[in-house]
Automatic annotation (TrEMBL):
Molecular function terms from GO: DNA-binding transcription factor activity; transcription cis-regulatory region binding; zinc ion binding
GO biological process: negative regulation of DNA-templated transcription; regulation of secondary metabolite biosynthetic process
Keyword Zinc: yes
UniProt subunit comment: Homodimer.
Cofactor: Zn(2+)
Any Pfam family matching the protein: FUR
UniProtKB keywords: Cytoplasm, DNA-binding, Iron, Metal-binding, Repressor, Transcription, Transcription regulation, Zinc
SUPFAM superfamilies the record matches: Winged helix' DNA-binding domain
InterPro entries, sorted: FUR, Fur_C, WH-like_DNA-bd_sf, WH_DNA-bd_sf
Species this chain originates from: Halopseudomonas pachastrellae
Major subcellular location class: cytoplasm
Protein name listed in UniProt: Ferric uptake regulation protein
Length: 164
């Protein structure tokens, strides 16, 4: 079982360093299990994606890398690192924002279901398996085979509603 249920609610103030260290150690385990290399660049890109619970675009990642390293990071290498992280299930791509968000429980394969706040842009991953079941059932009833079922629900998070 995933221990993601012990992770803090991203909507509440919390020690985010804990989220980052959990994500990095989970990534190391996933890469070791799959026999793939968790290179310095891949790790660095994952850390950047995890800098908050808000999806981050490839361009922002490039900018930060270039600024921190004092030289322009080559876009193809960053895109390849993002592809790798996505293939390993370490990040999810949020299509509506053309951005990436770290996955808190990459140990098991799953589709991404997200609540995305229109105001603060936080993305909250839903882990209720019933969502996938309902989608699978609806697709089957149409004789449809699913290849991807990313769900992106936009609205206002609890924090932003409280602040309004
Ligand atoms: Zn956090
Ligand atoms: Zn996930
Ligand atoms: Zn919000």
């Amino acid at each position: 079982m995933s221990d993601s249920h012990h992770l803090p609610d991203p909507q509440q103030p919390h020690n985010h360093a804990h989220c980052v260290s959990h994500a990095l150690s989970a990534a190391e385990q996933v890469c070791a299990r799959d026999g793939v290399r968790f290179t310095t660049l891949r790790k660095r890109v994952l850390e950047l994606v995890w800098q908050s619970h808000k999806p981050l675009g490839a361009y922002d990642i490039l900018e930060t890398l270039s600024r921190d390293d004092g030289r322009r990071a080559a876009p193809p290498t960053v895109y390849r690192a993002l592809d790798f992280l996505q293939e390993q299930g370490l990040v999810h791509r949020i299509a509506s924002l053309n951005a990436f968000i770290g996955c808190p429980s990459p140990e098991h394969r799953h589709q991404g279901h997200f609540l995305i706040c229109l105001n603060c842009h936080i993305a909250i991953e839903l882990e209720q398996s019933g969502i996938s079941d309902a989608i699978a059932e609806a697709a089957t009833s149409q004789g449809f085979t699913i290849s991807s079922e990313t769900v992106e629900i936009s609205g206002l998070c609890a924090q932003c509603q409280a602040a309004a």
